[in-house]
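User: quick one, sequence for these tokens?
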């Protein structure tokens, strides 16, 4: 059950029904691979991704120009963080709602996001279906919080570096495929680069999903980054 909080925070927890589909979405994340994968997933779910921004300044400028229905905002970005960017874009686009995406799960971050003007708080390491559900249903005047936000799992943002035993054991070829996924490549491109058949490549991807315990390419990349299995995708 998703939690919806009425402002001002903290407030009474309310169950809210789905209200509308999010039509025009701007994705903001300095990790280009994550932004591209999330954009593709949102478009596949029927939303119109009008653009991607990779810095706070770019996000504010694009929001002012495009006036999207929803901005999906990463909280942790260099130079200016997502909370500051949220405050600024709420001024230039008062009818745009913001769904923040964070590595943190501490309730204090939910409070800070609400105070900045966000209308949803989504764990970055949550499921793809959960993320899409929140982006679809977010509206002004509330704070949507998926159940996984306050789970007992440690956050990616403050957990210690994982021990090798915490990482799934991959074959050399699986690691090569994972590295390609981390660069945002699709199955056909990976197969071509590695000199293997497309169906063989799909088999490696399925194996990665099983070993990582995920269901999508986006979730695989996010979890692999959290486990230290990929090089940074920051540009």
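Assistant:
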């Amino acid at each position: 059950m998703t939690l919806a909080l009425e402002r001002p925070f903290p407030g009474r927890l309310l169950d809210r029904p789905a209200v509308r589909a999010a039509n025009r979405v701007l994705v903001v994340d300095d990790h280009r691979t994550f932004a591209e994968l999330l954009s593709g997933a949102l478009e596949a779910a029927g939303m119109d991704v009008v653009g991607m921004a990779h810095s706070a300044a770019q996000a504010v400028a694009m929001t002012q120009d495009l006036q999207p229905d929803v901005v999906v905002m990463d909280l942790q970005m260099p130079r200016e963080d997502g909370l500051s960017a949220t405050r600024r874009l709420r001024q230039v686009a008062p009818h745009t709602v913001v769904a923040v995406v964070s590595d943190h799960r501490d309730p204090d971050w939910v409070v800070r996001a609400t105070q900045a003007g966000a209308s949803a708080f989504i764990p970055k390491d949550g499921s793809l279906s959960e993320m899409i559900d929140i982006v679809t249903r977010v509206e002004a005047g509330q704070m949507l919080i998926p159940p996984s936000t306050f789970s007992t799992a440690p956050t990616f943002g403050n957990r210690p570096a994982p021990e090798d035993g915490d990482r799934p054991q991959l074959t050399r070829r699986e690691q090569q495929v994972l590295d390609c996924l981390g660069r945002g490549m699709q199955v056909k491109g990976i197969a071509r680069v590695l000199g293997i058949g497309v169906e063989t490549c799909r088999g490696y991807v399925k194996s990665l999903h099983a070993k990582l315990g995920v269901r999508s390419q986006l979730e695989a990349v996010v979890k692999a980054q959290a486990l230290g299995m990929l090089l940074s995708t920051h540009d």
